[in-house]
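Quick check before the chapter quiz. The format below is the same one you will see on the exam, so make sure you can read both the input and the output lines.
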Amino acid sequence: MRSAARCGICSNVFAVLSDDERAALDRMSKRMVFAAKTLVFAQGDAANRVFSLSEGVVRIYKLLPDGRRQVVGFALPGDFLGLTLHEAHALTAEAIEPSVCCAFPRTALRQLIDGNISALRRMNQLVSVELCAAHERMMMLGRYTAEEKMAGFLLTWRERQRARGRGAKTVPLPMSRRDIADFLGLTIETVSRTFTRLERSGLIEIVSGGVRILDEARAAQLAAAAPAS
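Here is the expected output.
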């Protein structure tokens, strides 16, 4: 397999497919490259394709009627983009840094997996994980302090990075302060002040491109109240 073999979609979901099914997956896949700040798809676009992110970081957000923006997540390699039961995308996906996706026609992809119980089960598991994360995030937005939200975000983001072989001592933060604010339900000013307070207290060190967590125990204690990302 050429293009599809490099996509997280295959390792995550389609490892159970036969060789013929994988060959069909490869034929339908299209490798797409996105520069930073370009859209993978926009809110309201026809949901004709499903994307698997293989390189880069993508922010996922919703524009509200009054012009405000709510960031609902950040995608990393291996994550799906554009999974929806509706005919149009309810969210926007935008590359934060240069990113590569494998795109699959939605209808053809559905036909390929409809008869495969193992693939359907794995897809359902992925959707269930996303739903649980959304429920936890709703509680976080309404119940936790800025410091708790930030600690939860940093620890969870670090674990997601490490699961993909990224980040060691430093937690890379390719997203902007505004992105973090719109994700945590805070203002940019509050995010900046919270970073400063956490650094002055010795919990983190702000470095180029990210942060280092210096006090693991205290970060975990704060984050215990806020399952964040």
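If your answer matched, good. Residues 4-135 form a domain with the Jelly Rolls fold (CATH 2.60.120.10).
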